[in-house]
Design brief:
Length: 420
């Protein structure tokens, strides 16, 4: 029962968001049809978002395998899901308790302080709870003290990170109705900060002018398809016809397969954007009930694709800039005595794209490029610096990918070392 509640209910973002929408609609005393419709559409929006993300991840995984084969890359690949799966075997109970009480601490802080953010990205809550329990356990903190301290830290982060980003989030969305609840916040904040200082917000990525004959490129889906097809076509010959047709495509010609994967990627982004639009349309009015009755002026803090519809061109600009920084970092890391971090396409896409949107909001095209590039540097160096903290736990083969996990893990690791 406990496992069912923590992993299958609270650990499932779609159900978690749907529960908050249901509570919000009930508190507003909406009619039965409105409650059913609002709750189901909220869950559906998140499922559509997740479906699009899975399409994207499938295409990116194939591109990643081609890229590794083409350029013979070896190193540590950051993967949140992989490291959490390993850690759950040892710290499963502690992680679940920290997650549950961390969410309660989040609501208490939102109710009692001016920071009115309810963090709704359930899987990131689970990942951070896992990181906290693993790092503290290595320092000898176990049992009730581990759960109490871990819950307070997690609940505080669930409010603090959206609060830090909110001034820039208002510039992205043009409203104060939603917040960003994703533990890549350090990268987004850095991107927006760099964009503000080195960019020009009047030259937005969304206003890029193209000749009339290339007017079709104004359609984001078309531009994204062509960009990704080009990337696949560049990498595919290096990976080799035999490798692709034998290992990846099931015998389909390697160029046809590459073409389809590039378009599949763009289709995934299209589905993500549709899901986000439906989700925001339902969750914002539903949250009014919580804002009025439980946590006054509460704001839902949503997953990072929530910002994608506000600057679709910045999404692809941010991804490519972050990935370029990941490739550059791969060569610099061993020169400064750190392990090679292979640029993971999934963290570079999701956090790079969101960083691009934030950089664009404060600094236009230059802000999107420079800000997302800085994000790429962060999610390359922070996982490398986190490795020694996690290494003693037997996680040498992988590490957390997003920036907040890196900085929180490193700080907690050094704090425990200093106190012991």
């Amino acid at each position: 029962m406990f496992h069912f509640l923590m992993k299958d209910v609270l650990g499932s973002p779609a159900i978690l968001v749907g529960l908050f929408a249901l509570i919000g609609l009930l508190l507003q005393r909406k009619s039965f049809p409105e409650i059913v419709s609002g709750t189901l559409k909220t869950v559906m929006g998140f499922i559509i978002l997740g479906g699009g993300a899975n399409i994207l991840i499938g295409s990116l995984n194939i591109f990643g395998r081609m890229f590794e084969k083409a350029f013979h890359i070896k190193g540590v690949i950051p993967n949140n899901e992989a490291i959490v799966a390993i850690a759950q075997q040892t710290f499963g109970k502690e992680t679940a308790l920290i997650m549950l009480f961390g969410m309660i601490v989040n609501i208490l802080i939102a109710r009692l302080t001016p920071f009115k953010y309810i963090f709704l990205t359930g899987h990131h809550t689970l990942f951070m709870a896992c990181l906290i329990s693993a790092v503290f356990a290595t320092g000898g903190v176990t049992g009730v003290p581990l759960v109490v301290i871990g819950s307070i830290i997690l609940g505080s982060l669930m409010v603090l990170m959206p609060a830090i980003l909110q001034p820039y989030m208002r510039q992205v969305t043009g409203t104060d109705q939603i917040a960003l609840g994703h533990f890549g916040s350090l990268g987004y904040f850095t991107s927006a900060w760099i964009g503000k200082r080195f960019g020009n917000k009047t030259q937005s990525t969304e206003d890029i002018k193209v000749p009339k004959s290339l007017g079709f490129l104004r359609d984001t889906s078309v531009a994204m398809s062509l960009t990704m097809v080009l990337l696949f076509f560049i990498v595919a010959p290096f990976a080799g016809k035999t490798f692709i047709e034998k290992e990846l495509s099931g015998g389909v010609n390697f160029l046809v397969f590459s073409l389809m994967q590039g378009i599949t990627f763009a289709a995934g982004v299209y589905v993500v954007l549709a899901g986000v639009r439906m989700l925001i349309a339902e969750i914002v009015p539903a949250f009014k009930g919580i804002a009025d009755k439980v946590v006054q002026d509460a704001k839902p803090a949503l997953d990072c694709p929530a910002v994608f519809p506000y600057a679709p061109n910045a999404v692809i600009v941010g991804f490519l800039s972050s990935f370029a920084a990941g490739i550059l970092s791969m060569f610099i890391l061993p020169l400064v005595g750190l392990k090679v971090i292979v640029p993971g396409l999934i963290p570079h896409f999701f956090t790079g794209a969101a960083a691009g949107v934030f950089g664009n909001a404060t600094g236009g095209r230059r802000g999107a490029v420079l800000g997302a590039f800085a994000n790429g540097i962060l999610i390359s160096f922070l996982p490398a610096l986190l490795l020694p903290v996690l290494g003693s736990l037997g996680f040498e083969g992988t590490t957390f990918g997003d920036s907040d996990f890196g900085i929180v893990g490193i700080l907690l690791g050094y704090l425990i070392k200093w106190l012991s």
